[in-house]
Sequence to fold (99 residues):
Amino acid sequence: MDWELGIRKVHNGYVLTGKHDETNEPYEEVIESDNHIEYPDNKCELKEYRELGLRVLEYFGLQNSKHNKYRLEIKIINQQEQKEQQEQKEQQEPQGDKQ
Fold:
């Protein structure tokens, strides 16, 4: 079974083209950019990449249930906030539990 997916960057987003071997049906999808929307911290480009990654996973059938123990996940994280949350969590842990 051969599947292929092409990704082409255009001025307003991405164009995905491909063909499923099973159906031989052509596939085309446009992911439009949100450049006209102002997001905090310039997240617009990250949101495009995230959407592109999600569409690739979906095309190849790699999306999993949220109930699976292991699964692929594409998300945008703020590393500074994540670090601060981890530090707060460590401060809240009782000292006797650390070894």
Observations:
- Residues 44-59 form the longest helix (16 residues).
- The radius of gyration is 20 Å.
- Residues 16 and 49 are 13 Å apart (CA to CA).
